[in-house]
Amino acid sequence: MAETIFTKIMAGEIPAEIVYQDEHVAAFRDINPKAPHHLLVVPRKVIPTLNDVTAENSGSVAKIFEALPKIAEQLGFKESGYRAVFNCGPDAHQEVMHIHLHVLGGRDMTWPPG
User: Fold this and answer.
1) End-to-end CA gap in the chain
2) What CATH number does the domain containing 98 carry?
């Protein structure tokens, strides 16, 4: 498996504020938050970009979405709402080649996002 900053966080090699984890995913606070709650939800299996999702690994992506309402409820923004965003590739400013869902909550979101 390729190592990324996210695999190192999940292994405890790099400190992070982990707010949720199970055998499939981990969620931790973004180091450059854009909202009161800005989390990254990451599958434990490394999938570099959304373009690399296949029938064989799509179950890892599904686990992100299964964890999302649990995380939102745990942190208290499930009912008020949140934004969930994947970035894919350089034009979208994907900086880590390990898919991750940005979850932003705790404030009113504007549209379009930019």
Assistant:
1) 34
2) 3.30.428.10
Query: Looking at the domain assignment, is residue 96 inside a domain?
Result: yes
Question: Which position has the token pair 């504020």?
Answer: 17
Transcribe 27-55 into DSSP letters: EEE-SS-SSSEEEEEEESS---SGGG--T
Indicate if 100 belongs to the active site: yes
Looking at the domain assignment, is residue 79 inside a domain?
Answer: yes
| Residue range 103-107: mean pLDDT, rounded | 96
Which residue among the candidates 38, 93, 100, 102 is catalytic per the annotation?
100
**What is the chain's mean pLDDT, rounded?**
96
Range of the domain at 86: 5-105
The pLDDT tens digits for 40-81 are: 999 999 999 999 999 999 999 999 999 999 999 999 999 999
Give CA–CA dist 91/35, Å, rounded. 22
Q: Do the strands 37-43 and 101-105 form a parallel or antiparallel pair, or are they unpaired?
A: antiparallel
